[in-house]
Amino acid sequence: MPDQRAARIAGGLYLLTFLTSIPAYALKAPVLSGSSGGSASLAALLELLLAAACVGSAVVLLPVLRRWSEPAAVGFVVSRTVEATLILLGVVALLTIAAAPTARDILTPLHDQAFLLGPGLIPAINALCLTPVLLRARLVPRWIPLLGLIGAPLLLVSATVTLSGGFGQSSAPAAVLALPIAAWELLLGIRLLWRGFDRAAIPEVSLTGSAR
Predict the structure, then answer these.
(1) Are 97 and 105 contacting, i.e. CB atoms less than 8 angstroms apart?
(2) What does the alpha-carbon distance between residue 71 and residue 132 come to, in Å, rounded to a whole number?
(3) 83: which residues sit within 8 A by CB, 6+ positions away?
(4) Residues 185-202: pLDDT tens digits?
(5) Phi-psi bin for 158: left (phi > 0), alpha (psi -120 to 50), beta?
(6) What pTM did the predictor assign?
(7) Cα separation of 57 and 80, whole Å?
(8) Cα-to-chain-centroid distance, residue 41
(9) In whole angstroms, what is the distance from residue 14 CA to residue 91 CA?
(10) Which range marks the domain in which residue 157 is found?
């Protein structure tokens, strides 16, 4: 696959994670809390797409990233796969709650922990795998991966404090600390979909998909 096509597919998948995760959160919140409204089935469908987009974005970038760092490229795929697995664990908990509301008190904490360790923590690991390669290869403007490097430790702090009971997952401090990593993923997705990789960093032969 030509590198620029891979970049644009990855960018589209990054943006798909936002288009699925945000409405899924709104749809499943009433189900988890026991209030009226919401839709567990639609939320689950969106989160299945979210999990697929997580893995897909890493797999499609693997052939490009491994030219600069095999460990980082493979680590990125593994990290994204772990994130997707935790999302799927949350989906199972959500659908079980919808089918058996009496299990809510047991399964809602399981769902919340999966959400915290998956979308609430793993994006920091993703960034620590991906940003050094992007910086080294200059595949995108440097300020984009630098934003990821800033956001990764902040998200790790947020997850650690949340796990220790310092503040809630949906609290204002958690949202503020998560903002840089969210901005990094959003801006990376927009850049890759819109412009692809920096052509100066990619050999012409790889732009066409010809053999190296």
Answers:
(1) no
(2) 12
(3) 51, 54, 118, 119, 122, 123, 126
(4) 999 999 999 999 988 767
(5) alpha
(6) 0.90
(7) 8
(8) 21
(9) 20
(10) 3-198
